[in-house]
Write a sequence for this structure.
């Protein structure tokens, strides 16, 4: 572990941020490095220009344009709760039961009474 830390410190100590070394070997292959070139390679130190853009204009522009206001989030309107009248519900249930039990019942009357139970009680039989 200590050997790796020593190698990292050695590599960090030899690296400079403003230059790199261009190594050219005997066959003409080019290698860029920040440490010394292997023996037999020709080495040339190349200065590196930092690619930093001037942001002063952007900062002035940002001061002119304030941040956009945040929209207020409104909670969705709640559905009104239906009031169920127990008397009306009971009457609708009895009328539906009477129509179902009738010997001379008609399908349209049974359907109408069923709809009445749904409307009055909030649930269908």
């Amino acid at each position: 572990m200590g050997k790796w830390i020593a190698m990292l410190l050695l590599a960090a100590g030899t690296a400079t941020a403003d230059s790199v070394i261009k190594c050219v070997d005997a066959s003409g292959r080019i290698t860029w490095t920040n440490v010394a070139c292997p023996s037999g390679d020709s080495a040339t130190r190349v200065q590196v220009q930092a690619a930093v853009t001037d942001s002063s204009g952007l900062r002035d522009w940002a001061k002119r344009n304030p941040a956009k206001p945040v929209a207020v989030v409104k909670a969705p309107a709640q559905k009104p709760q239906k009031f169920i009248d127990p008397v009306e519900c009971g009457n609708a249930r009895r009328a539906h039961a009477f129509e179902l039990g009738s010997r001379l019942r008609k399908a349209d009357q049974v359907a109408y009474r069923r709809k009445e139970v749904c409307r009055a009680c909030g649930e269908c039989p």
The chain is about 40% helix and 15% strand. Residues 99 and 110 are 6 Å apart (CA to CA). The beta strands are 19-24, 30-33, 42-47.
